[in-house]
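Illustration 12: PD-(D/E)XK endonuclease-like domain-containing protein.
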Amino acid sequence: MKLATIPAHLPFLDQLAIRWIESANHDVEAIGEGIIVLPGRRAARALTEAFLRHMDGQSVLLPRIVPIGALDEAELGLSAGIGGELALDLPPAVASMTRLAVLARLVLQADKAFGTRPTLDQAWPLAKALADLMDEAEWSGVNLAERLPEAVQENFAEHWQIILRFLEIVTQAWPEWLRENGVMNPVARQVALLEAQADLWRKLAQQGDSTPIWAAGFTHVMQPTVKVLQAVLECPAGKVVLPGLDMMMAEETFLSLPDSHPQAGLSALLKNLEITRNKVQIWEGTGKGAGRAAILARVLLPAEALDDWSHPGGAELENVYRLDAADQQEEAVAISMIMREAIEKPMHRVALVTPDRVLAARVATELARWGVLADDSAGSSLVDTPAAVLLRLVAQMVDSRFSPVSLLSVLKHPLVACGFSSGVCRATARLLERAILRGPAPPPGFAALCRVVNNALENLNERAKAKLEGGITADRPFGPVALSVFMQRLAFCLEPVLGWELDAVEASVQTAQDLEQHCAPVPDLLAALIATVERLVATDEESASERLWRGEEGNMLASQLTELMLASEVLPPQPPVVLDGLLTAVLAPERVAMRRGGDPKSLHPRVLIWGLFESRLQTAETVILGGLSEGVWPPVVDAGPWMSRPMRQRMGLPSPEQAVGQAAHDFFASAAAADTVILSSARRREGAPVVPARWLTRLDAFLAGRNGYIPNHPALVWLNKLDQPLGPATPVAPPQPMPPVALRPRRLSVTEIETWIRDPYAIYAKHILRLEVLPELEEAADASDYGMIVHKALERWVKAYAVAWPENAEKKLCDLFSASLQEHVLRPALRAWWAPRLTRIARWVVQAEEKRRSEHGVPRAILTEIRGRVSIMDAPGGKFDIVGRADRIELNADGHVIVQDYKTGTLPSAKDVWAGWSPQLPLEAAMIIRGGFKEVPEHSREISDLIYWRLTGGADPGEEVVVKTREALSLTDLAEQTWENLLLRVAAYDQPDQPYLSHPHPGREPRFADYARLARVPEWNSARKEDEE
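Figure caption equivalent — predicted structure in token form:
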């Protein structure tokens, strides 16, 4: 028989090689005669390896092994010899990039006709969808110009007419462009070549040519491939070999399979070949999994045939295991352990088969833990390679007008050096981050950033010296010289794209005229972007080309960008904002092998990672089917952007469910042929619950009905033991650092004393570990900014009108608040929100001042924002300084002192002040008593009032809280008591065994616990709460 099948439980390519060798009677010369046509290049390479395995080391000339997609004039010999009269005069195929560029231009023109104004990054994906539609139609033999109008649905006639008008791109405009340029679609040309190949082989058959021609491994195929297979069957020595045809399924069921069934493609193929299954020869062989394949075939029967489950039969799946992981990471680690364990056996191959590229990348990374570099044959998207990521980051940076986040994303990219060594570039970038980019964002634009840097150089110098003196030298070089040189070098690197800066604004706020005015030819935009990146990646020792374009990734990226620059000459000018989206659309579909830092020569020959296409016709001793979840494997069914399923059916296009059927066949073939199979799925994917693949659900149901089950693989047990500590887990204890007294701070501010009481660990982290809390990048204005505005305005008010009361006091204070507000860089909406609140504060302050003066008279003096210091000379560890800055100190008419503090947030209660939890004002009073504020006269040191002003500007714009005396204790007594407590604390912490505890008083934690994560408070605090309960 000329039509054969290799059972699913046998390794297809090994059996094919064995049968070819046997058909040549093991004659070395005869083995090399003939042609074997396979579906893809990966299968062709794998068949070559299979021949080598079965030739026992003999030297042999192999037959010509040809992927069907590689058939062209050179392979076919159509231009000379016996096929000369059949030679084709075909126009060349249009280059893929050129086709997409021209289609994108047509999309732009068509959308303008519909009244929209898309940009290139929006048009390119539509162009790709149009190209896919044409390819699909040409493989199916569908004339879009004739069949599209027939697909219209009456209920959607108006909507369809709009789509039909848009699709005139592929029915009218594109064919006209092809004729004008003398080229043809790639698939149309491939179809013509396949048909010519079929005609050639038929002619050879008629002339009695007995050259063996085998076509193997095809499942559901398009009509042009069917013609090739029919021609092979007509050849005297021709054979068609099918993979895993189910010969036991009922004929009625086989002929009516839904497209989502794994045998649906083979069923359709036999129909097209006009051959029934009883004409198919079974090539038997030696294998272990015949029973497993039979069970899987019953499990996957269509719904109409499920009554077969009621019949008795085997239910033991030998060497099949389940891996039910909690999430993708656990799944990846477990799979890597299985693969590492498998290669302990000599000559044992292990393969992961998965369409989930994220899972494949995770497994490859985890295998590196075991020193194994896996061959991920499906590769990664070109857009995710380091060089492509850098190109997109630079485009995003210019689009965002050099925002801190986008700028640092570029500067911290591993390839960026700006002409320095990588270490100097990285250290200076971190310095720029800390000195300039942390906190509120600088004004937009590179020029504005340079101005901010220049203004900060003097302050930076002082801070850098202080850090160097404190021993922080990890980020050398410090200082304005290094930073100024760095900014000059950065300006040189960015020079090609700095001209775009004015254009890089949101398209949503631009008019059509603005967009047209600030556009440039796409090749020029790409050239400027590439030139910028090349300048950024060059080091002081290596050129850009050595770093950016090397290796397989760099070569492919350079090739794609070159093709894009040439093809984009046909495109209209575009704004620079399109580059990020354009590069994503162009580079994302391309796949490239990423070795993740490993040497390709170090790839482990027996550890394989395959995508579904790469896995077809291949197997290994151990096969892991990973990512078996709905939406991953099988994939989500998508009818495409242009038409519904019924419309596709009326046009004669393949149904979307065929993709599910092919995925099901991949599952069946991989699970049936290997010696050991692990079926792996995760319960959560990207944090969301997922449903196991329908085939796993069916398998569980089938086995449950026979009191069977699939045992779990022990990999999850291995995983739990892998990182398990030697002893039992113990809750972490609160930190108790006890540094030497010589390292403990000898100077604290009055505001830090409250922190010292509530959270001593924060003092330890800040002053001993010297860990500073970094502001957020692009930090939004918050309550601290509001407080600074209020304090600055009141400081100016008191200094201008301390005793003398001005006319129009409210207006003058409002003007000061307005000026202070304008000095801060704020969002317009926030400025508009704060302005009326500040006006209400001004009104309240004026009223409060007038009330106090009317009740207590005009003060003798008002001091504001003055600094003070008191030294504790007899502290056990040596002199200890208390410093402070008072918001306001008022000397009233009788010579007593009023100490006042402004708050824009929460006020401390009088109870907390007397209890010592909020000691700021009492400590300032104690410093006044001890002459710590030189501006306060010595004879005026009796404390009469401690006052808080809470200034919010809300419905109640202000509130005055006075700390009152208690029984026989005056406020002076409170100040002295607070000072005595401070002396005791200083003495206690001058003892080497006094620890700096974190949050030692439950319920009295500081409002802003900046070092709570460093102290691991959430961990031990939860244990403390459990103990209390």
